[in-house]
Amino acid sequence: MIKILIILFNFFLILDLYAKDNIKFFINSAIKKNLQLNAERQKLNSTKQNKIISRSEFLPSLTISGDQTSTTSTNRTNQSGGSLADTNLDTESKKISLEQKIFSGFKGVNTFKKSELETQKALLELKEVEQQTILDTASAYFDLIYKSKNEKFNLSNVNLFERQVESDNARLQKGEITLTDLAQSESSLAGANASLIKAKTELLTSKTNFKRVTNENIPSIENLSEKVFLDLPKSLDRSLEISNLNNLNLLISRLNYEISIKELNIERSRFAPSASIEVSKSENRDFSSSIDQKDDETVKATITWPIIKGGENISSIKKSTYDKERAKLILQDTKNKISTESSNSWSKYQSTKSVLEATRAQLKAAEIANEGITLEYDTGNTRSTLEVIQSRSLLLDARIAFARAERDFMVSQFELAKQIGSLSVKIIK
After folding, report:
1. How far is Cα 315 from Cα 399, in angstroms, rounded to an integer?
2. How far is 413 from 406, CA to CA, in rounded Å?
3. Taking a C-beta distance cutoff of 8 angstroms, is the pair 119, 51 a contact?
4. pLDDT per residue over 240-275, tens digit each?
5. For the residues of 23-36, what is the DSSP string, one character each?
6. Residue-wise pLDDT tens digits, 204-219
7. Is 150 in contact with 199 (CB distance < 8 Å)?
8. Strand 293-304 relative to strand 85-103: parallel, antiparallel, unpaired?
9. Does residue 101 contact residue 108 with C-beta atoms inside 8 Å?
10. To 10 degrees, what angle do helices 236-246 and 248-268 make?
11. What domains can be seen in the chain, in order of their start residue?
């Protein structure tokens, strides 16, 4: 039984370790801990309250009021020697009233619809920040892998040149190479060390950025999954179609235009009459009077129709009209931008895929060439030190180029998914 428990514990431990090496783990962590994203969640909660507040426009209002007054009056002695006289007046009143708005020029309706649109907008803005968080996490994740490989390749290059310098010193003593050949190797070693320092600095920067974005400790880079594929559209036309339906910036711009229409309608309602009805009951008691209590029941209907407010209402309508036209123009401009940006994202996605295949072939050729040239040089054939240096330089460049192409291709998938409004953890395979 104990053995079974140990096996199960180790199994789940391995699963946990694997999970933490998976990009989905870091994305979920970023979504949970990102401060801007949490701020947007609070904004959404706040906006939902505006919807509840606007609904109160249609509901009756109940008011209870009351007061109690005690007054003591003192008449002092007059010149003829009259005595003092005190008068006490005690009164008490209570009132309860119920008011219901009957008509407000459709202000309440438009205010409620505006609050609904603002809630939808806040939700879309939350999704926009969430998608940007996923993209930032993916970029940091694959950049960390790339910069780690870059540092590894440069370190390997330094080690190779150190061995070559050591070997060339021995060969120089034997007269197999010249002092110039040794100098070329030493110069290449110095350059390789400089490149390694730069690679280490870039890796440190990448680690810092990764920790900032994910709010997680730096993982074991060797165990990170390097390849991730997203469920993306198969053609440019399909990408443009989805983008027109789901791009979040475009949807937000459309909502801004609809909100501006509601704001204009609200301002126009200021010209319209409003009506309300009020039912109230009051109790008034005077303890110093022979009539100690008086009850009143009142039903009051009120109609208000603003005519002139010093030009305020007219100017408000003009302002809202300008705002609506501005929102309309911004919407059209956003449509044009989204179409262009979606096409560019698709082109970048296809381009990075082609570059990845090209650099793969380049790397394979560079590996074969370097292996042959190095072997010929080590066996004392006609290959020069310069040729070996050039071959290794080409191999290093090919390795770095392929690693960079892998990163660019992976990130381009996330960029395209965000551009068309489909980026989520669910589409990551």
Report:
1. 66
2. 11
3. yes
4. 999 999 999 999 999 999 999 999 998 888 877 777
5. HHHHHHHHHHH-HH
6. 999 999 999 999 999 9
7. yes
8. unpaired
9. yes
10. 30
11. 22-59+111-272+309-427 (1.20.1600.10)
